[in-house]
Amino acid sequence: MSERQKQLVAEGDIAADYLEALLDIAELDGDIEMDVENDRAMVSIVGADLAQLVGAKGEVLDAIQELTRLAVTRESGERSRLMLDISGHRAAVRERLIIVAQDAAKTALETGEPVELKPMSAFERKIVHDAVGEAGAVSVSQGEEPKRRIVVKPS
Fold first, then answer.
1. Which residues form the domain of 28?
2. Given 69, 87, 105, which residue is the final one in a domain?
3. In Å, how far are 5, 34, 71, 92, 123 from 12, measured between CA atoms?
4. Which residues have C-beta within 8 Å of that of residue 6, sequence separation ≥ 6?
């Protein structure tokens, strides 16, 4: 295991301890799973009835992720890029966005015209950029937050 992987595993351990304490305070049941993927610590909370930790559009999940990153940074002294998922919310969003990206790339390649997508978060845009590239098209982000969007173009 490389030094970087050891550091990411340590981030995951710190995050797991923080999240376990949070679940205890909220009196919620959940199991915590950790992994390292794409040079990033990945932590997931799975269990029954955790929807309130996700929020309507993932806002609560985003806030908990940021708090967890801050806790890891405070403990480790290193800025964390940890990714948190709760009840598979981010995984489901990823799957949906990959389909959107593939459809947009197909349309752009078939018509030769750019396809403009709706505004997305940085997390969502990253997924779309990667999927568009894999589909053989190119993509660029345009606009300012919170209305920053992707335009998919034929390659």
1. 3-87
2. 87
3. 10, 6, 11, 22, 19
4. none
Global confidence as pTM: 0.82
Taking the C-alpha atoms of residue 47 and residue 45, their distance in angstroms, rounded to an integer, is 7
Q: How far is CA 39 from CA 2, 42, 70, 134, 144, in A?
A: 11, 9, 18, 19, 27
Per-residue tokens: 101: 């990206």
Name the average pLDDT for the chain.
94
Rounded to whole angstroms, the Cα distance separating 46 from 9 reads 19
CATH of the domain at 107: 3.30.1370.50
Within the chain, strands assigned E span 31-37, 40-46, 83-86, 115-116, 138-142, 149-153
Query: Taking the CB of residue 29, how many other CB atoms lie within 10 A of it?
Result: 11
Residues 67 and 42 in one domain: yes
Amino acid residing at 33: E
**Tens-digit pLDDT profile for residues 17-45:** 999 999 999 999 999 999 998 889 999 99
Mention every residue, 6+ apart, whose C-beta is less than 8 A from residue 126.
none
53 and 107 belong to one structural domain: no
